[in-house]
Amino acid sequence: MTRPAAPGPPPDLTAEILRNALCVAAEEASIVVVRSAYSTFIVEGADAAAAILDARGRLVAHSLSTALIQCTSLRSALPYVLRAYPPETMAPGDVFVLNDVYQGGIHANDLLVFRPVFLGGAPAYYTGTLIHVADLSGLSAGGMASDATDIFLEGVQLPPVRIATADGLAGDLVRVLAANSRTPDKLVGDLRALIAGTNVAARRLEEIAEADTPAGLAAGIEDYLAHTERRMRAGLAALPGGTHGGEYRLDDGHLVRVAVTVDGSGGVVVDFAGTDEQVPLPVNSGFSQTHGGVMYALRCFVDPSLPMNEGCFTPVDVRMPPGTLVHCTPPFPGGGRFGTVAAAEEAIFAALTRGGAHDEAGGRPPSGGHDEGVSGGAGGRPPSGAQGVAASGILQAFSISGVRRPWLHMSFDLGGMGARDARDGPDATGALFGGGRNIIPQAEPIEARLPVRVEEVSLIPDSGGRGRRRGGLGTRTVIRMLEDARVDTRGDRLLRPPPGAAGGGPGRAGGYYRERADGVREPLGTKATRLPLAEGEALVVETSGGGGYGLPEERDPEDARRDRADGRTT
Amino acid sequence: MSITLASDVGGTFTDVVLTGADGRVRVAKTLTTPGDPTDGLLRGVEQVLAESGTAPGDVGRFVHATTLATNVILERTGVPVAFVTTEGFGSMLALGRRARVEEERYDLAYEQPDPPVPPGHCFTVPGRIAADGTVLRPLDEEAAGRVADGIAALGVSAVAICLLHSYANAEHEDRLAGIVAARLPSGVPVVTSSSVWPELGEYERATTTLMSAYVGPVMAAYLRRLGERLRGLGVTAPVHVMESAGGVLPAELAASRAVYTIESGPAAGVIAAARQGERRGLADLISFDMGGTTAKAGLVRGGRPGITHEFQVGGKGSFGGRRPGTGVPIKVPAIDLAEVGAGGGSIAWVDAGTLRLGPRSAGADPGPACYGRGGELPTVTDADLVLGYLAPDGFGEFRLSADLARAAIERHVAGPLGVGAVDAAAAIHDIANAQMGAAVHVVTVRRGIDPRGFTLVALGGAAPTHAARLAERFGIARVLVPPQAGVGSAVGLLHADLAIERARTFLAPAAALVSCSAARDALGELTRMLDGLERAALADLGVDGGAVTTRSVGVRFIGQAHAFTVDLPAGPVTPETVQRATGEFYKRYHESYGIDLRDPVEFTTARVRVVLPSYADAPRGPGRAQPAGPSGTRRMWLDGEFRDVPVRTRESCPVGEDLVGPCVVTEPQCSLLIPPGWHGTVDAEGALLLEGAA
Known about the structure:
The structure holds two protein chains of two kinds. The N and C termini of chain A lie far apart (60 Å). In chain A, strand 8 and strand 9 form a beta hairpin. Chain A is built from ten helices and 20 strands. By secondary structure, chain A is α+β, with helices and mostly antiparallel strands. Chain A has helices at 15-36, 68-84, 171-179, 184-212, 214-237, 287-299, 310-313, 338-355, 443-449, 557-565, and strands spanning 49-54, 59-62, 95-98, 110-119, 122-132, 161-165, 168-169, 242-249, 255-262, 268-271, 316-319, 396-402, 408-413, 452-459, 475-481, 485-490, 511-515, 521-524, 531-533, 538-542. In chain A, helix 2 (68-84) packs across helix 6 and helix 6 (287-299) runs parallel beside helix 8. In chain A, the strands form four sheets. In chain A, strands 2-1-5-4-3-6-7 form a seven-stranded antiparallel β-sheet, with helices on both faces. A five-stranded antiparallel β-sheet of chain A has the order 14-15-20-17-18, with helices on one face. The radius of gyration of chain A is 24 Å and the shape is globular. By secondary structure, chain B is an alpha+beta fold. Chain B has five domains: 3-72 and 219-261, ATPase, nucleotide binding domain (Nucleotidyltransferase, domain 5, 2-Layer Sandwich); 81-104 and 112-213, 3-Layer(aba) Sandwich (Rossmann fold); 264-342 and 432-493, ATPase, nucleotide binding domain (Nucleotidyltransferase, domain 5, 2-Layer Sandwich), CATH 3.30.420; 346-430, no CATH class; 499-612, Dna Ligase, domain 1 (2-Layer Sandwich). Chain B is 32% helix and 26% strand. Chain B has 17 helices and 35 strands. In chain B, strand 5, helix 3 (92-95) and strand 6 form a beta-alpha-beta unit. Chain B is globular and about 80 Å long. The model of chain B has no long low-confidence stretch (mean pLDDT 87). At the A-B interface, helix 1, helix 4, helix 5, helix 9 and strand 14 of A face helix 3, strand 22, helix 12, helix 13 and helix 17 of B.
């Protein structure tokens, strides 16, 4: 890309052009990874995360449709790469990989790849990509062992290591990784895809620097981040001032507690002091994941059109006490983090909405919002006058693998969203992470590829919490085994279903079940591993409905009639 | 040659062109009449008939590009439809497969868009077919009868049926359609997914089928009305409608296969670019079609427009509206193009101190401020006028007011930003170029294609003003401005070919086709499938000879999701042709992703496209007046200052004259800016080929 040398309009007027180019570069990297990767989670339309960061590790741009917790992981991990490989030791063409949850990673199967972009002889930027690869050892194919009591049972641990140089892949290391995967070819293919993504973004960045000069690019980025930060601060300044408490309890009884302090001038402190200690099961969250959840939750209260870059992070001070559920330390596992991250998000929603923030995204809080100091869980009826927020059913993961042959189906279903003051909760959509049903594989491609039959994918009537506003519905998926298989489950909000708010009822609890050939249904553990499912038996996955909002008897009869007509209630 | 009329109805303007018996092209540009598009269209037809002195009865063919199908889906104005699927999947449409993208992600008040079919109109029937086509459980005909009664009671105008794995075995769908149709009033269409698009992926097949049923009756009524109004003028020629992949369909087929016409309008521009390039020996082209509402970029490689099979109506995303998981997916092939909300009518606005452009458009009504039709918001056209790139009198049906343009920019952009009106206008122009650059980027760089070496073809009223600057952004050194560029898409319709595509899922590892003992069976099955698709496509068009057939297959790495479409030679599929297709796939994959991989591949889909060439002669430009010198100068903003720049009319430029930038060449429908560093020559047909130093 070349730009005419002629003097154009003042540069700040066309800053939008550079900003767009940076986002496009990250987006392009993500597309290259998606289209060239093998990962089971990728093949049905999921997105890969891709990011551009600067030499100081600041997030400049990231691919737009990625779950925020993934991009936060790239941002959190880069400093650890730089600690292991100081920039002056890097050479053009170097590529680094890691998955270490204690160094910003997520869990064994999520590989993070970074590549320095050299301008003027030194790394000036880094491009990063991330996807969930099919398998990297661990107790269970696909990496969802819910009985992993320490990190080593979750899979091969990768601190930051150099995976490629200008001469190509580091063959020794690749062979070790391949030897530790149940699907070595797919693993190597995915690694290539991740590297190709970082290459593409790096090339675009070099082209932009060529057109704008490196100094021009740096100045443009500086303006961009500062502009975003101003807008972020303006949004945060509009939140009700003071300290607001919130908490959310996981299925196993563990508590995530948060205090959100809004200084009224754009700064926010999110402190998880008081959160329960980490546990020797994959329930904990790595710090990058909790940080991503915090950013997601706060973003729901500011202008949704804000770009996601360092300017959003700067005003937010996130305090995650090491050794707690929200910040696991060695050797505690982190693979099942999304229940905890979702709890952290829900706790922040509870804190801010009870503090008086308006519950419409991007909306302004009512003037004179005050701190009620409420710290009761989202369960139970909140004090009168408090708005509260109905909780949502969350992502429920599962994997099925062959007993006699190596095949693997990894998937998840989504719970119903909580209702809000102004509307019913949407059905089975990507609450709390911002995804969507496009990443859930369809029945036909599954059956064309694997020895299973999908018998049902449907909304569960009456699963939305009752209330003036009804919670969103959960789903039921029935998958029949055509040969012997094993099943892993990983869900939350199944033993303690998503509570309603302001008098609304909880959503219907979902669960995992084995349906025997004779039709008898037996409950399976909600965090269970390698459960046998014989040929002819079916796995039934039901997601939880969202909580209702307001008293059920206040529901508009017209809304109730429409629900019956649409089959959402019986 | 015969007389052909063509019309392209856009968001702002309706273009009508006519090639007369003498081969000359006559043009009318009228404002689009959204209430009833045939009003603006008929006005244009009357104009060109009168101007050319053509008797309406002498018109041999009427070719039409319309955004009707898209609008019906976006605005949800289709007919009431019932939907039937396999037991267990009744929530398919309600659940959808949407992604929450960009701003939606942070929306706690997110609302799912209502599915076009209310849950009460969705039915299920027991019966099951496996992925390999075997019947696992017979269709429950008694239950089917009850469903048919339920549908009849609803009084819907159309029915869509999509049963699991019907691409592999259509038996249940056909039987069910018969049972349902028998209990409905005659004339209510019952559309099966296996007849519309028998490809694996139940949700996309269902939406494609559903939209066919939903739009079909509206399209049929529209085309009936258009035919009647044309006959009212005395035009009795057959009506052909452009389909999404760039061919045209007879009107009856366009009505029964309405989903084929969704990208009707945008496709016309790419086809026009391909034709214009072909006439000049240029095979690698980027069509750049900029009208009042949007700008579209498409790619032509080796003379062939790129085709996509992953397309959604109303798709979202900042990058050409092509983000998966948004909008309504339609499996029917469409010209691969990117569309951005940056047209001449796109409105500039200030957002927290940042200048933004679009996606709102002033459209035809009220139009840009300078139209003087009540529009008060500044648009790209206003900026171009203030900068001197457009002439106040050089634009279609009316004069443009520079004062109104400047006032709008001052009030809404320059003032809030604290800059001068000209700086603000220049920034609007630049941002428009950058947004259009994003569209070009999507179809080139993002596909792994280096745009340098391509020729940019400028089409649409606003394109010639922006084309050279846009080319510079990509290092493109050549810009082709065809004759009548301002109505270029409509001109492209004049010689569109009758064409249709058929496809069916064929899932098999390539290795199984070349090496194992079952290879002959599998190869035979693929050959028979391709033969069947070809017969069906020929029957669609009602032709038996003179057609050109292209066969192709989808190829991907086993375990990946995304396939490339690779051509096969005519005749039976052999191990050699399979190997050649595999090699071609490896090459394309390497080109696109920079990964040189040789893993096992599988075939996914068999495709056949049948084209009946129109053999239309090249139209000639309008008669050229005697050569004249420069017709004056205009002050325009170039490189940070106002300069006096020569302005010529297109007719005054003799063939072969070298026009050196800066310079402006005007036509009734557009204004071509040749910036400094560029020069251009007029060829014998009236096209201008610009070359720059980029």
